[in-house]
């Protein structure tokens, strides 16, 4: 789960991570009131969406008067913001964060992420703050410092010194400040089951203090039960509506750009199915895992969600019956044809528990647009052919 910048900064404040003062608003009128409350003389008007690169997309602007705050808030609020981290359709800006302007002497990048290869958190830092870190990694990777922190010992002063020296900080007071900043950030990361914290830019003021000028946070969804305060920050308007609806029925759904809808049980088999479709010359329209507790209702809902995508020209149902029985899936397919206008070919490959019973159910149903696949390769090939109208 991701949260907005203003929410991330609320959490930062609990851990003593310095940030500028700011107020979240949802109207132009409230934006001006927030600026008056903060006092100025300079304010930053920031779009609040779950994506980075807002500044380059026109979603972060500097205002030097209350009139400018009003003008910029009117321009940004309600705009569709497209950045390198959104889809081509962009995201609608429904919230703004009005923030104090800052005394910026220099800008840095700082983040804490999980390094799956090392199996431990990794602190990343760079002197190239305010830029897309992906561009820095591609063009000047030597400017990125990485410090792995073993959770069994936690953040130690030597980790902080490695960061300070890597960032070229020679003033003892600045070194002390960055070590303290990184230590607080790491503690925040560990205690809240975060998957990622990114501060870009991390600024150094004229007094040598470090402040999180911008901030992003993402959390492990499986751990949200331990953090009800963070779970309460979830903003469903920032999430894909179909993915939210699918989750209500125990379905894991992610929309893609292809034309073959996929309904599979198990994440590994789903990935293998999509790879096989690609290998056969097709493109998957989605990832959909019905899980181990699927029934007729959830399968029917899966068809409904898949068919919302007008690009879908065929659906490949690939189920290996283990926990979930194949006859349940077969009945779900029939239920879907009754509840939903399934107007595209459906290629079905069922194997495992109660597969013979499932085959009999589909055979007796006598539905013309259901095609049986003998195995994964055969099913994928038939799905690709059906999508092409062959």
Report on the structure:
With 390 residues, the protein is α+β, with helices and mostly antiparallel strands. The protein folds into 3 domains: 1-20 and 103-238, ATP-grasp fold, B domain (D-amino Acid Aminotransferase, Chain A, domain 1, 2-Layer Sandwich), CATH 3.30.470.20; 21-101, ATP-grasp fold, A domain (Dna Ligase, domain 1); 241-387, Rossmann fold, CATH 3.40.50.261. It is 36% helix and 24% strand. The protein contains 13 helices and 19 strands. Strands 1, 8, 9, 10, 11, 12 and 13 form a 7-stranded antiparallel beta sheet that branches. A 4-stranded antiparallel beta sheet has the order 2-7-3-4, with helices on one face. Helix 2 runs antiparallel to helix 3 (66-76) and helix 11 runs parallel beside helix 12 (355-365). The chain is elongated and about 80 Å long.
